[in-house]
Amino acid sequence: MRTIIFRTIAPYLAALMVLFSIFVLLRGHNEPGGGFIGGLIAASSLAIYGIACGVASVRRAIVFHPMAISGFGLFMGAAAGLLGLFYKQPFMTSQWWPIYLFGVEIKLSTPLIFDIGVYLVVVGAIGSIALALEERESD
Amino acid sequence: MAGSYPSVDVSAAMVTQPVAAGDWLVVAPVLITMIGGALCLMTRKNTDAQPKLGMIFLSLLVFANVGLLARVLDKGVITMVMGGWLPPFGIAFTVDALGATLSLIASIVAFTAGLYGAISVDHTGRRYGFYPFLLLLLTGVSGAFLTGDIFNLYVWFEVLLISSYGLLVLGNDRAQLDGAVKYGILNLVGTNLFLIGTGLIYGVFGTLNMADIAMKVSELGSPATGTLAVIAALYLLAFAMKAAAFPVNFWLPASYHTPNIVVSAVFAGLLTKVGVYSLIRIFMVIMPESREYMADVISLLAIATMLTGAIGALAQTELRRLLGYLVIMGIGSMLAGLAVGTNLAISGAIFYAVHSIIVMTALYMAVGIVALLTGTYSLREAGGIYGANPAFAFVFLILAFAVSGLPPFSGFWPKVMLVDASFQDGRGWLGAAILLSGFLTTIAMGRAWIYAFWRGGPEGTPDGQALALPAAQQGVFSAALWLPLGILTAMVIYFGLQPEWMFELTARGASGVVEPSGYIRSVFGDQ
């Protein structure tokens, strides 16, 4: 797949997809979207970049091993549920800290942390599988 | 929703009382293993730190489970609902004496497996994620023991299955992949049947909370007709597959001898017992009438499972396969308790589960040491251990006695209870099968001990001669392997000599499921 058109467009496409995946992740609280679907989009951007420019450059670009990213996501998801302990509430009870920025209400909350955790788990797990499959092909 | 709720009465749908920090012990085993697994996964390239990190979380898990059991014994059944949503809408974790006991024993066994794995799993295995998978396996196992929601039980089964696939193929060789495929496909079929049954339950009752279903199940009429019979049959088949009961037991001997020995030890100890636990939970708490209706079928399954297990063990010359059949034999004994279903029988089944978790793990560990000393798992080639290491030979003999159900070790008491309960219930054949399978197991284990330990060397070594064991292997049997084996053997001896504490614990566990009103009251309060 080393055609010049694909190789030229892939980095931009991948960057755009990561950006879009974050948009989908953040809008997911009240509208369609969320961590899982966002993570899938981000993982496919890694896959596209890998097909165009080689798996080694993807691994350099994301710095951490995909499974480590996945592990961090799992940690975030579990930790998000823990905060209820300090408010004498059951596990996984959501906590809200709304902030006002330029007159817009932004709802920071534990569901958001949990969703980012899901996002990272999906990016890590699916990305890890995709990169492993692409590596075999180029051997 | 910013901080304060709009002016509706949320107390109808949500927990508004402050939750005591002690109640968090209910979710602690799941949380500790999940966070520990995540941290181990992130640092898995640092293979020197893996065992230390893993052992920290495994010991935390044991402490949390001790605390949980103490709290359950003190306060009775504890429920915590996730996110504060009241049942039946919120997912409930409901812990009674049965769940807390099994969760504690499972965590102790996992702790010893972590110690053993620090020696027997090499750096490659650690990089492939032995400790993350072990911790996440425990997430699934503890979650299954503690949850009070039937769909959630399915989720924990998935968690433990996925982790077990990872552990099974830790070395990536051909035999392991072959074993993993058989294990994986059979378990997927079982899981799907479980999911279909759960879908039916939700369609019929509109709820997934176990206590809620237990209250509604009698409205559906006779257990012999219609949907209820289908659900009960699906669950029985699904969990019989998980537990490796006859006739869906063939995946176990086909896969348990392939992975690293410590992985086999954990699997043999924990996985099948989760299936048995689910059978007890579902057929005693949720569908007691269906259990009575199917008691004869379960009794036949139990007899067939015990005898195939014991006879299969007699036929094996490979030590790990032999133990695989003994796991199946034990499952049959626990099913016998379920078939009878009285207080005494369920106590016996719980005691047997505790005993089997400990003794099967210990036996696999011991067999791993046999392979270290002689370089083989085959009874034809092994030999001469008694001469080389009499203390180890003695420990193996203790475990062999225990698994056969001979006094004065931990296997004796549950068998007494099960046989007694079977005869009281008029199921003489069931009691006879328990005794016969114990007798056959004694022969199988005696044969293993005579060949691998007493005989001077490989097959054909004349009596009275002892061949020296390969010197290279002598040093490998380090003191660190004694520690996990010693902890488990000490428990086997302790439960054999001082069973009163276990009697009390299992009696509480059994009365909690035979008469589940306490369980239901814990979820829905006094109504």
UniProtKB/TrEMBL annotation, chain A:
Domain Na+/H+ antiporter MnhB subunit-related protein spans what residues?
A: 5-126
UniProt keyword list: Cell membrane, Membrane, Transmembrane, Transmembrane helix
Q: What high-level taxonomic lineage is stated for the organism? A: Bacteria, Pseudomonadati, Pseudomonadota, Alphaproteobacteria, Hyphomicrobiales
Transmembrane feature ranges: 12-29, 35-56, 68-87, 112-133
Q: Which Pfam families does UniProt cross-reference here? A: MnhB
Q: Which InterPro entries match?
A: CPA3_antiporter_subunitB, MnhB
**Regions annotated as coiled coil:** none
Q: How does it sit in the membrane?
A: Multi-pass membrane protein
Q: Where does this one sit in the cell?
A: Cell membrane
Spell out the family assignment given in the record's similarity comment. Belongs to the CPA3 antiporters (TC 2.A.63) subunit B family.
**Source organism per UniProt:** Roseibium hamelinense
Q: At the top level of its lineage, which domain of life is listed? A: Bacteria
A GO cellular component annotated for this chain's UniProt record is: plasma membrane
Q: Which protein are we looking at?
A: Multisubunit sodium/proton antiporter MrpB subunit
Automatic annotation (TrEMBL), chain B:
What keywords is this UniProt entry annotated with?
Answer: Cell membrane, Membrane, Transmembrane, Transmembrane helix
Matching Pfam families, A to Z?
A: Proton_antipo_M
The record's Gene Ontology biological-process terms are: ATP synthesis coupled electron transport
User: What highest taxon heads this organism's lineage?
Assistant: Bacteria
Membrane recorded as keyword: yes
Gene Ontology molecular-function annotations:
NADH dehydrogenase (ubiquinone) activity
Q: What is its main location?
A: membrane
Q: Which InterPro entries match?
A: CPA3_Na-H_Antiporter_D (IPR050586), NADH_UbQ_OxRdtase (IPR003918), ND/Mrp_TM (IPR001750)
Q: Where are the transmembrane segments?
A: 24-41, 53-73, 93-116, 128-147, 153-171, 183-205, 225-249, 261-287, 293-315, 322-346, 352-379, 391-409, 429-454, 475-497
Q: What are the residue boundaries of the NADH:quinone oxidoreductase/Mrp antiporter transmembrane domain, all occurrences included?
A: 149-441
Q: Which PANTHER family match?
A: NA(+)_H(+) ANTIPORTER SUBUNIT D1, NADH DEHYDROGENASE
Task: State what protein this is by name.
Answer: Multicomponent Na+:H+ antiporter subunit D
From what organism does this protein derive?
Roseibium hamelinense
* High-level lineage: Bacteria, Pseudomonadati, Pseudomonadota, Alphaproteobacteria, Hyphomicrobiales
